[in-house]
């Protein structure tokens, strides 16, 4: 009788271990699927980008009140963000930017030239086909150029 009880106890223990192991695997797989699902959301395209991509006519006013007119092109970059060509009518390389909802941002970016280093940064809002934004250019000698822009999208 003790032998049967011993075997039944071993069978019960191995069944409990099997159930525990199966539950552990189920939780592990669920966690992997959930985590994978979250990372896919991070790679999803930003729907706000389509609203801002295009060519804009810019009216740029500097801190002294001088006005300059030029155009910029905003396009989607290979990394899924934004690139602004002809930024400030002085940049020969695209400036990186982003949009979230109606908030437009140019994170601080450093550009090294032959005779100076500049840091460009800015922010603004998109309202329909009009992008209002302010930006600054800090030169290597700690001089700050401040600009306020109204950019109208060419339709």
Architecture overview:
The protein is built from two helices and eight strands; from the N terminus they run ααββββββββ. The chain has 155 residues and is an alpha+beta fold. Residues 23-41 have low confidence and may be disordered.
Provide the fold topology.
Layout: H1 2-42, H2 49-52, E1 54-62, E2 67-76, E3 82-85, E4 95-100, E5 103-112, E6 117-127, E7 130-139, E8 144-153
Antiparallel strand pairs: 1-2, 1-8, 2-3, 3-4, 4-5, 5-6, 6-7, 7-8
Biggest sheet: strands side by side, in what order?
1-2-3-4-5-6-7-8
Coarse structural class: alpha+beta
Quaternary form:
single chain
Largest sheet: 8 strands, antiparallel, barrel
| Helix/strand order | HHEEEEEEEE
Strand content: over 45%
The rounded distance between the terminal residues' Cα atoms is 91 Å
Count of DSSP-assigned helices: 2
Q: What is the average of the pLDDT values?
A: 81
Q: pLDDT below 50 for ≥5 consecutive residues: which ranges?
A: 23-41
The helical percent reads 25-40%
At a glance:
By secondary structure, the protein is α+β, with helices and mostly antiparallel strands. The protein has helices spanning 2-42, 49-52; strands at 54-62, 67-76, 82-85, 95-100, 103-112, 117-127, 130-139, 144-153. It is built from two helices and eight strands, in the order ααββββββββ.
